[in-house]
Amino acid sequence: MRTYTQTLSPMDALEDFQRSNTQRDKPRERFFVSRMEGNEELKNDILGLYKDPQKNLRVPPRVQFEGEEGVGAGPVREFLVCAMKILQEGIHGEGRPISFFEGELDHLLSIHNQIGQQMGAYTAIGKMIGHSILHGGPGVYGLSPVAKHYWSHDDLAKNPPPIVLEDLPDLILRETIQEVC
Known about the structure:
This protein is mostly helical.
């Protein structure tokens, strides 16, 4: 990890992060997915790819959608957008739907889901976020300032998170707190 004596602008910090963590001297990593069986199956395929410990996420991706001719940056960008949609929309295939975040926009917090954790879904979600940011794709939108604060501060006792009522996804609990206060 680098230590900086000067403060970088957010764009300079992002470019520095991408430059120092991308392995451009190695062959591109292949990602082969299909939309032919629907959007939910595509999401399952993408989640499965990020669970694969053999995938080198530091090298530039090469994406191919089954039955489609797209090449270059277009399919890569679309793939990363589809990966980020998993975070926002969850997966609603057969059986019980799996959601990863809850709450209102700009106050989204991750959901505690022991089954998802045991399945490796949360590790895969973290890989998706990092992979997308590393290769110029979209980031995560709508997170609560509390989550951002938590991930960016080491000592929460000295620097507590800025919690507000909107950070409570449970509307009944939020209403009860408002009545008490």
